[in-house]
Amino acid sequence: MTESWGRFKSFEGMTFKKLDAKFTKKVSELIGGQDLTACFQCAKCSGGCPVSDKVNIQIHEVMRMLLFGLEEVLETDMIWLCTTCYTCQERCPQGIDITDILFGLKNMAYRKGIAPPGYVAAAQGLYNNGRLYEPTDWEREDLELDDVPEFDINDVKKLLDKTRLLKLQEEE
Question: Architecture of 21-111 per CATH?
Answer without folding.
Answer: Orthogonal Bundle (1.10)
